[in-house]
Amino acid sequence: MKLRLLPLTLSLAAALAGTAQAQSLSQLYEAAKGHDAAFKAAQSQYQANLAKAEQAKALLRPTAGLAATVSESDFDSQTSTPDARYGTRNATLSASQPLYRPANWAGYQQGMKQVGLAQAQLKAAEQELIVRVSQAYFEVLTAQESLAFVKAQKTAVSEQLAAAKRNFEVGTSTITDTREAQARFDLVSAQEIAAENDLRVKKLALDQSVGLQNAQPVALKSGANLNPTVIGDAESWVQQATAQSPSIEQARIGLEVAQLETEKAKAGHMPTLDLTASYGGTRFRGDPSPSRLNNNTGTIGLNFNLPLYAGHATQNRIQETVSLEEKARNDLDAAQRSVAQAARTAFFGVQSGLGQVKALEAAEASSQSALDANKLGYQVGVRINIDVLNSQSQLFQTKRDLAKARYDVLLGQLKLRQAAGVLKAEDVLNISNLLQK
Prior knowledge:
- Strand 1 and strand 2 (about 85-100) form a beta hairpin.
- This protein has a 4-stranded antiparallel sheet with strand order 1-2-3-4, with no helix packed on it.
- Helix content is about 65%, strand content about 15%.
- It is built from 10 helices and 4 strands, in the order H-H-H-E-E-H-H-H-H-E-E-H-H-H.
């Protein structure tokens, strides 16, 4: 009796039911931007760093202050001078403008570095969010297709079990065929339970990432081109990573800040010069002394200060900052090596993935041919039931591996662009264009 397999398109349609409300990868990414706690924290840190950069400008700007005092005095005389009560009121407006303060200038430059640091940190957080959402998205799709293939395999094994039972009843096969088919059916049933649970867990993870309930990702288009962005060789991607990686940019800014910190420490030996000005007035009330008259006073001058001895604090501070500068330089070297290695690993991972997809596509065709041959051989009596069951298992395992390999390639492309520091929201849209509408 001829056996049939549930068509792949029907099984996938059942697994992906409800695609009328499905969301593309770009849609879920936009949803995640407004929900993901780590990304929102990075945005807050970005705003804080910008504000910190603005604070540094105050080091070069003038300062001004207003001071006022009011006092009342009682004069209780033990002589012939009459008792009196009088008061004094003082108000002074003062201002200071730094003219030469090397430490302030270095601090100002450090503050301006915060802008670049904030941009690099936000860029890294955005790229991390893209990869995190995409991975959760593709894991759901992989789990959906795995479940669909398990269900299809269960249907095929069920049909093979029914055929074995009929053949045993009419005496054309042994009880062994029935028991082998039953064992395989039980195994596939257990795999189905595991696949359903895996899909449930993956969906929960995706929902948590994007802040939606029952998010429905859409599957890959049939015949989609999986190699739209990977061009050049590994070293060209390493060069991009060296120039644009936010990790390297953060380490580079860290070195520059450390160098400026050394300049600040050295400024402890240098003089400072400020321009100062003040204007104030004093008013007296009821003062019996004729020498105390209301007056106004204005001053302008230069305030010069030269450090002479600080107990070796400045020298030790310089030694500390020089060591921290060397640490920052080593951190930069480590970041460059790490990014280069990550770029090479991601590039070769994508290339390997593309090769696996081609090999699995060929294996799928071969497994289908082997199954068809075993089914025919079983019907004519030259193959036994276990041969058909093994061929079925091999075919569906190959289909699952192929589906996973395709999504791994898409995710690998995003990770490659992340490693190179060029991953953008437009790349998410490009991936979305490879998915079903």
